[in-house]
Amino acid sequence: MKKIGGVNMNAIAHLTGKVTKDKKEERYCSVYESLEESLKEVKLHREGKIHLDTWDEYLKKKKQNKG
């Protein structure tokens, strides 16, 4: 995989669990799109509409899913 904005996309794919062998259908969003989506989530969280996990909560869920 290639680097986008200095970020190794292979590492990101492994963290999200979205690794596929068919690279033709994969589409990586731009940094702008990622930031835009993150801002939407922050606004929803501040309004109390969604709950965002802490890093520790996220890691616990990942460990439970693997085991």
What does this structure look like?
The chain is 54% helix and 6% strand. With 67 residues, it is mainly alpha-helical. The protein has a two-stranded antiparallel sheet. The longest helix is centred in the middle third of the chain and has 16 residues, at 31-46. It is flat. The model has no long low-confidence stretch (mean pLDDT 75).
Along the chain, the helix and strand elements come as EEHHH
What do the pLDDT scores average to?
Answer: 75
Globular, elongated, flat, extended or rod-shaped: what is the shape?
Answer: flat
Taking the alpha carbons of the first and last residues, their distance comes to 28 Å
Number of strands: 2
Order of strands, main sheet, comes to 1-2
* Contiguous runs where pLDDT drops below 50 for at least 5 residues: none
Helix-strand category: mainly alpha
Q: What does the main sheet amount to?
A: 2 strands, antiparallel
Assign a percent range to the helix content.
40-55%
In quaternary terms, these chains amount to single chain
Strand composition percent = 5-15%
Radius of gyration: 14 Å
In DSSP terms (H or I, runs of 4 or more residues), the helix count works out at 3
Key traits:
67 residues; mainly alpha; 54% helix
List the helices and strands and how they pair.
Layout: E1 3-4, E2 7-8, H1 9-16, H2 31-46, H3 55-66
Antiparallel strand pairs: 1-2
